[in-house]
Amino acid sequence: MRREYVSGSKSLRTLADEYSCSQSTLRKRAANEKWTEQRNDYRAKVEQKYMDMSVEQEVKRVERLHCLADDLMDKLDQAIKELNEMCSVEHQDGEYKVVRVPGVAVDRAGAKQIASSLKDVKDLLNVRDDLDRQEQQARIEHLKSQSDSVAAGVPEVQVVLSDEVKKYAK
Questions:
Q1: Residue 30, Cβ neighbours under 10 Å: how many?
Q2: Tell me: the pLDDT tens digits for 122-160?
Q3: Looking at the whole model, is its pTM more than 0.90?
Q4: Residues 6+ apart with CB under 8 A from 48
Q5: Which of 4, 105, 137, 139 has most Cβ atoms within 10 angstroms of its Cβ?
Q6: CA distances (Å), 34 to each of 37, 40, 121, 155, in order?
Q7: Domain span including residue 60
Q8: Element housing 79 (H / E)
Q9: 121 and 54 within one domain
């Protein structure tokens, strides 16, 4: 019964009814053996493992994204070098031959495509400004404080009083 209570969502009353035993006896035993504390500890551990798994998955996704962005940057670098050397195609004996002509003006359409691709890479990497980072840090701190209060077994209650109630209280 302890295992079901600690790791499950059943109440002591439900367990007492299920196992046909006295509720008061079960409550006394649960209090003596600190089942509620064990349940809170168990839930905190499960929540922490879930958060760790989520963080790990996000890290893997970001790593993959950075690898793809690096590959794309390499391709764009190669394209930039090729733009500096325009190509001409000559037809000889039924075959096409590509001849590089150095010093020819850069292809403006190609340069625009590369610039657009670079912007896409930046968007992929989700480069954040300071305000985004501050907001993200505030959310992380809020989540940490919530998980700390849950782990400590202290329920968090916030009471917000209207101005009228505050005036009445004076």
A1: 20
A2: 776 665 566 667 777 787 777 777 666 655 555 555 666
A3: no
A4: 147
A5: 4
A6: 5, 10, 54, 17
A7: 40-73+108-151
A8: helix 35-83
A9: yes
